């Protein structure tokens, strides 16, 4: 084999290996995909809890002492108040008469461009690890 052919094969081989390495770096592992899916479920759960707690406050005039109080009040749907991964209740704490905090643990940061979150409001964006959302329930509009 001539020298130019050997150089050509080396260059092509290096390019193929570089392409494979770049492709593997971009592909998410099954564990990453599972973590992303769990994060989506957690945000969905927290948003539903948020709606239920707001409704509870506006109906009763006070925040629930614990999330299971809200779940007992939910007739139309099942409200998940436990992390689907750890099976522990999501963190909930009253921080004022119309304020509370919800916390969960996330695997991945939420995408900054909303990719995959279907227009998720900035409020629900999160980083990796334990993330808390401080929520203030607005006063009901006068009738």
Structure write-up:
The model has no long low-confidence stretch (mean pLDDT 80). This protein has one domain (30-136). The longest helix is centred in the N-terminal third of the chain and has 31 residues, at 30-60. A three-stranded antiparallel β-sheet has the order 1-2-3, with helices on one face. The chain is elongated. By secondary structure, it is an alpha+beta fold. The chain has three helices and three strands, in the order αααβββ. The N and C termini lie far apart (89 Å).
Tally of domains: 1
In N-to-C order, the SSE pattern is HHHEEE
Strands of the widest sheet, in order across it, are: 1-2-3
Strand content: 15-25%
Number of helices: 3
Instruction: Give the oligomeric state of the chains in this entry, treating copies of one chain as homo and distinct chains as hetero.
Output: single chain
What's the main sheet like? 3 strands, antiparallel
How is this structure best summarized?
The chain is an alpha+beta fold and 143 residues long. Helices cover 43% and strands 15% of the residues. The chain has a three-stranded antiparallel sheet with strand order 1-2-3, covered by helices on one side.
Would you spell out the secondary-structure blueprint of this structure?
Elements: H1 3-26, H2 30-60, H3 67-73, E1 91-96, E2 99-106, E3 129-136
Antiparallel strand pairs: 1-2, 2-3
What are the key terms here?
43% helix; 143 residues; single chain; alpha+beta
């Amino acid at each position: 084999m001539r020298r130019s052919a050997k150089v050509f094969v080396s260059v092509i081989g290096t390019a193929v290996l570089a392409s494979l390495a770049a492709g593997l770096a971009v592909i998410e592992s099954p564990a990453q995909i599972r973590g992303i899916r769990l994060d989506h479920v957690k945000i969905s759960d927290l948003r539903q809890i948020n709606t239920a707690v707001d409704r509870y406050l506006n109906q009763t005039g006070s925040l629930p002492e614990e999330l299971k109080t809200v779940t007992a009040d939910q007739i139309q749907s099942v409200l998940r108040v436990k992390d689907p991964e750890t099976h522990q209740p999501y963190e909930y704490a009253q921080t004022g008469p119309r304020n509370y905090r919800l916390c969960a643990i996330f695997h991945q940061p939420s995408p900054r461009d909303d990719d995959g979150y279907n227009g998720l409001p900035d409020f629900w964006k999160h980083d990796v690890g334990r993330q808390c959302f401080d929520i203030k329930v607005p006063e009901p509009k006068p009738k």
